[in-house]
Amino acid sequence: MATPPGRVGRKSTTREPIIQEPEPFEPEATRREVGVTESARANRGWWDRNADEYQTEHGTFLGDDRFVWGPEGLDEVEAELLGPLKELKGKDVLEIGAGAAQCSRWLAGQGARPVALDLSHRQLQHALRIGGSFPLVQADAAALPFADGAFDLACSAYGALPFVADPRLVLREVHRVLRPGGRFVFSVTHPIRWAFPDEPGPEGLSVSGSYFDRTPYVEQDEDGRAVYVEHHRTLGDRVRDVVASGFHLLDLVEPEWPAWNTSEWGGWSPLRGNLIPGTAIFVCERD
Question: Residue 80: pLDDT above 60?
């Protein structure tokens, strides 16, 4: 699961990653238009530079072999959004934006045949560090290196889709590599969160911007080059993207914040989670 960075967490691993050197500059936050190529370059670099810190900070929440859909902690063991657990055995499953491949490791434990894909080489090195017998693939989700109809299921827990300029490129690729009737389930930051400050406390409860402003959030270096990008789609945009890419929308899940979860994760917190949704999960089926 490659959930949101510090705006991004299973059982803790005992093999701790080596912390990389901090970035030599403090990026400037702004809002401006960013295209497909610039977004991909910026986010590949961001995740490579910050993978170690990410896995260290959120490793306890994410663990090594759990499948959680977001900071709320909704677990696939309970949700069964990919289908009944007993039916996962023998299924070919593609995880997009896998990070350290915790979800793929859980899927393998259910008898599925997962493939873990991520844009970031450093994230996949963490998958190697933890271990597993399934394939790891470094590739862009908008250009999947697989044959048509190669998978029964696909999943993405905060992977790829929040960070791409044109989500339909990803959705059409997923549609292509799924077999007829295949299910794709993906989670993203709930679109309503775009209108609120990215703060876990009371200051994050007042609307500070327009929900309808789709201008990307960008962090850039001293030369104006993007080093991190997030793209906003309204709830309606997401639904239209899904349908236009050849999927049927079976369900839209908005996890409530559970009483057991007392942790904060960037702008996610019990305070905010009890008042506004933080995650949207789209359950889609290929035609």
Answer: yes
Burial 16-31 (b: 16+ CB within 10 A, else e): ebeeeeeeeeebeeee
Q: Which residue has the tokens 């500059």?
A: 25
**C-alpha dist (Å) from residue 198 to 31, 130, 227:** 14, 31, 18
- 240's CB contacts (< 8 A; 6+ apart) are none
Strand 151-157 and strand 92-96: the pairing is: parallel
269 token code pair: 């917190």
The C-alpha angle 164, 250, 247, rounded to 5 degrees, equals 50
CA distances from 67 to 99, 103, 162, 174, 254 (A): 12, 5, 19, 20, 17
Whether this prediction's pTM lies above 0.85 is answered by yes
Question: How many beta carbons lie within 10 A of that of residue 7, not counting itself?
Answer: 16
**Tens of pLDDT, residues 52-65:** 999 999 988 998 99
